[in-house]
Amino acid sequence: MTAFNIVNAIIIIGLIISAVSIFILDDVLQCIIATSVLGTFLALEFLLLKAPDVAIAEGAVGAILTPVIFIITLNKVKRNKNKEEKNG
Q1: pTM of the model as a whole
Q2: C-alpha closest to that of 78 among 29, 32, 35
Q3: How many CB atoms neighbour CB 61 within 10 A?
Q4: C-alpha dist (Å) from residue 36 to 1, 6, 53, 70, 84
Q5: What distance in Å separates the CA atoms of residue 50 and residue 20, rounded to the nearest whole number?
Q6: Cβ neighbours of residue 37 under 8 Å, at least 6 residues apart?
Q7: 17 φ, ψ to 5°?
Q8: What is the pLDDT along the chain (88 residues), one digit of tens a residue?
Q9: CA spacing 20 to 30 A to 83: which of 15, 44, 48, 66?
Q10: Which of 22, 63, 29, 20 is nearest to 44 (CA)?
């Protein structure tokens, strides 16, 4: 078994674990973090497959931009929920 195959297997196991954890976790913030981890593993896999342009795009969008948008949305939803509870 070559080093490439070992690293590839580790990344694929990380992909599977992070993807399954998104569905298992109950806390929304933990799911967002798992989504970011999934994007990071995908970027690493694309890098191994010699697609650096796709890896950079996935790293930027899947690991950074999407979770940031999810967290901003989650905070706004919580703020709106708190306002509704105070107003009655």
Answers
A1: 0.86
A2: 29
A3: 13
A4: 30, 23, 19, 10, 30
A5: 26
A6: 14, 18, 63
A7: -65, -45
A8: 899 999 999 999 999 999 999 999 999 999 999 999 999 999 999 999 999 999 999 999 999 999 999 999 999 998 888 877 787 6
A9: 66
A10: 63
Q: What tokens were used for 45? A: 């896999």
- What is the maximal distance between C-alpha atoms in the chain? 64
At position 76, the amino acid (one-letter code) is K
Nearest 10 degrees: Cα torsion 70, 76, 82, 86: -160
Tell me the residue type at 21: S
Which residue in the block uniquely carries the two structure tokens 């929304």?
28
- Tokens linked to 3: 């080093």
